[in-house]
Amino acid sequence: MSHTAHIRSHRKPRRNASTLAMRAGVAGGVLSTLAVAGASGSANAAEPVTQTLELPTLTADLATQAAQSADATEQAAAHYQLQAERDAAAAKAAKQAKADLAEAKKKAAEAKKKAQEEARQEAAARASRNAQRTTLSTTVGGDSTSTSTSTSTSTSTSTSTGTSTATGSAAAVISFVKAQVGKAYVSGASGPSAYDCSGLVQTAFKQIGVSLPRVSQDQSTAGTQVSLSNLQPGDILYWGSAGSAYHVAVYVGDGMFVGAQNPSTGVVERPLSYDPPTGAVRVL
Predict the structure, then answer these.
(1) Residue 266 per-residue DSSP state
(2) Which of 78, 173, 221, 273 matches a 20 to 30 Å C-alpha distance to 210?
(3) Which long-range contacts (CB under 8 A, 24 or more apart) does 32-37 make?
(4) Selected residue with higher pLDDT from 17 and 273
(5) Which residue has the higher pLDDT, 218 or 91?
(6) Ramachandran category for residue 13: left, alpha or beta (phi over 0 → left; psi -120 to 50 → alpha)
């Protein structure tokens, strides 16, 4: 012991137990913290470090632009599709128009060929009639007389002695055929807008209840044979021989007849001198 220890004022103050305990606790706490930190550091050093990247978030402007771009792409696709459909339709229409034009040309050529053939046949028939009339045989007053006359002489005889006034049923027949003048000639037609020669005659007599055969050959023998010098209105004129006639018409009086002549003239009223007939029959 120090030689001054017994003096109170020279003694070192004693630390009380609570102070020492607190200091020990603090020190222990610090040491514990350091130990935990060290352990944690060691643990962290052992674990791999993972870095997380955050992608930028679309703003309202970017979203709007993306939507507009999508709309534009969709509209462009629709436009191209519509254009393709229009092109396909135009190509189809052009193909159909080409086919229609070819068909129209074909029909026109066929119609032209048919008209030319009918005109040729009509010319041949007219030439044949003219040849036959140079040796025309007529029946006068019930007697058969063979005469070789010219076309003009035959016509003059026919018109000089024929009756010109139509009465009764004959008047009705003549009124009907005159009403058809100007209508078309169509082979095989019996009206109302077109006729051939025998179709016009048959239809005219049908108006008054008289039934006639359909073709010229049969109509030329349907009634009583009469002389061209004794014609009456309503008589049926024929060209060629009886039973094999190739053309017929109706005598309407005053040296005139009405007939469906050919495709070029249609139904006409002409004088007997225009195309003198071979014979005539009377059914009224």
Answers:
(1) E
(2) 273
(3) none
(4) 273
(5) 218
(6) beta
Do β-strands 224-226 and 194-195 pair in parallel, antiparallel, or remain unpaired?
Answer: unpaired
- CATH for 200: 3.90.1720.10
Residues across the chain: 284
pLDDT, tens only, 111-148: 888 777 777 777 666 666 655 554 443 333 333 333 33
Amino acid residing at 185 = Y
* Residue 281 to residue 223: CA distance in whole angstroms: 5
User: 54 or 136: whose pLDDT is higher?
Assistant: 54
Tens digits of residue pLDDT in 226-261: 999 999 999 999 999 999 999 999 999 999 999 999
Q: Answer for the pair 236, 283: CB distance below 8 angstroms, yes or no.
A: yes
Alpha helix (H) residue ranges in the chain: 17-46, 60-133, 151-161, 168-179, 197-206, 216-219
- Find all residues with CB under 8 Å of 252, minimum gap 6, and list them: 166, 174, 177, 178, 233, 258, 269
Instruction: Check residue 84 and give its pLDDT.
Output: 87
Query: Which pair of structure tokens corresponds to residue 158?
Result: 């026919």
Q: How many domains does the chain have?
A: 1
Q: How far apart are CA 55 and CA 73, in angstroms?
A: 26
**Residue 111 within any structural domain of the chain:** no
What is the predicted pLDDT for the residue at 139?
Answer: 34
Report the C-alpha gap between 68 and 195 in whole angstroms: 74
Task: Tell me if 199 is assigned to some domain.
Answer: yes
pLDDT over 50 at 219, yes or no: yes
Domain that holds residue 177: 131-282
Q: Does some domain include residue 100?
A: no
